[in-house]
């Protein structure tokens, strides 16, 4: 059926208009979305799937549907009276020079730089700190529209060769291009059909990479489940590449990776079937005929080798250590029964790195960074003094280096690069961005709220200083809650524009994330996934109870697994928020595992095929299956990309179609489908700015604003 709702036409200049009168101004017709009688039987339960035809991303019918939905959506968005103002301010604030930490390869110092509004960062190099930099690689020239991006860059040991990977249209499929760094000429044919892979060089001879066979059917949605590790020797064809691991049924895994030790002696191979837990193997490349040796032969832990000194291996593991620790073992007998603790587990989660002959142990304490420096005997050298309370990262460098560069940021501090003397332990600012944003005008506060089952959950709330807690502040509650991912404080230019408008930005550290280690992660998976939604709902209720905002001024936002979070929360508590912003979300929990590498998410989700109990649990919260006829849902802007081959856009297509059909209220339900864009990585700056202008414009407009909030504030002050 075609749902008719109210939209935008003759706009008043009032700051907050009467919603009913505005909604009577015009009608917005959604495109017709046909229903097909598709039914699947799960353990005796018949589940209808009327929009399954939208899963065919290659059909003309799906393409026409996308065009029709975008026409309605963009017509609505362009008529928001202050949308262009938001885009202009986003562009203005975004337009500052951004520089990465430098890194040395061969005879050159390399760094990434964006002049301000360039679609992609450019790679520069110079021969010394004081030398004039030259352009080494400009991804802005990869394609005319800026949608082909640089997704990886790796150098041979002597720095004379480089392998860089590119993504076209946001896809996870990559090409690896091999370049002579002196001449900047392409050295040989590209390596094709690479996916979920880094590049790890063995000296100057060649490198390891991973890929799948190209699937039958659509490469953007067809299932991929046998990852294989190859070795490419320079000067040979890809067809001659040596298959190292993954070619047999015994070695079949969804994610396989290879990493060469800094001294080129060992190859370490990880093999996983899910995003958590994996096997670990090694090869001693110093031997004439190296064989694969098992370090861990089950998928019960997350373990990797961080470094070695000769035959002594240093491993990071969560085996019997949910918050992780470092252990040592001899390469001749590397199995767990021979491990010895090197840096023991603590009450905080460990994320270590190495630089200049030391270990730098970064800990999360309530999602805030603390860093300790250790020598290779396991002795504590010092606590590294950080610039403030926030997130520090990048404490890595080669063994011979005496300097490292790290970044520091929080919700009100743009990412600043610091130069750190490894032996002395002193830091100085290397690059501080010159951005038109006054950090001193804003504040972040960490609070703890109580979830449904009594669990204490932290949340950081950021806004302008002096904000009046009157329940009317536009608020974005952003969450993720899954896959052991930690949401730590970081600056966002887009969120800065939101806060300039008097907006509040709140980020809770939900269960399912990694902020408190494996136990926190496991408290939000499979049959405990509802804990994540309960945490998010409790965060919203805290913000309302404390008068930061109210349901009329609350938006919930999240992407990918966070899109699922938004979808589940708005179906369970549609009364709680005014606006819902699910991005590239996992919305069909009964079929997610049938697309691309989706089956690898089963550690977090379980699948509908596992057993009846798991099916029932997923069916009970799956966003697509829990939209109910006759319910008034919040104003919703679903966002996705037509080249997203990680969370395929069919999830968002089906959710939007169901929601448009079943929406009983007057709030709009729109889907914004970016063409030539994927899951998010590598998206051109112009595209990002336009998307944020649409998201913030949609949010504020549906909270009742017809001019920007700071314009009202200026008028009142005037």
Describe the structure.
By secondary structure, this protein is an alpha+beta fold. The chain is built from twelve helices and 42 strands. The strands form ten sheets. The chain has an eight-stranded mixed sheet, with helices on both faces. Strands 5, 6, 7, 8 and 9 form a five-stranded antiparallel sheet that branches. Strand 11 and strand 12 form a beta hairpin. Helix 3 packs across helix 11. The radius of gyration is 26 Å and the shape is globular. Mean pLDDT is 92; it is low at 1-26. It comes from Autumnicola lenta. It holds the Pfam family Peptidase_S9_N.
Intertermini distance: 50 Å
Overall radius of gyration: 26 Å
Question: What is the percent of helical residues?
Answer: 10-25%
Sequence stretches where pLDDT stays below 50 over 5 or more residues: 1-26
The largest sheet has its strands arranged as 35-36-38-37-39-40-41-42
Helix/strand/pairing category: alpha+beta
Q: Roughly what fraction of the amino acids lie in strands?
A: 25-35%
What is the helix tally? 12
- Overall body shape: globular
Oligomer: single chain
Biggest β-sheet strands, sense, barrel: 8 strands, mixed
The pLDDT mean sits at: 92
In total, how many beta strands?
42
Enzyme class: hydrolase
Keywords: Hydrolase, Protease, Serine protease
EC number: 3.4.21.26
Protein name: prolyl oligopeptidase
Provide a concise account of the structure shown:
This protein is α+β, with helices and mostly antiparallel strands. It is built from twelve helices and 42 strands.
Provide keyphrases for this structure:
alpha+beta; 8-stranded mixed β-sheet; 42 strands; 18% helix; disordered N terminus
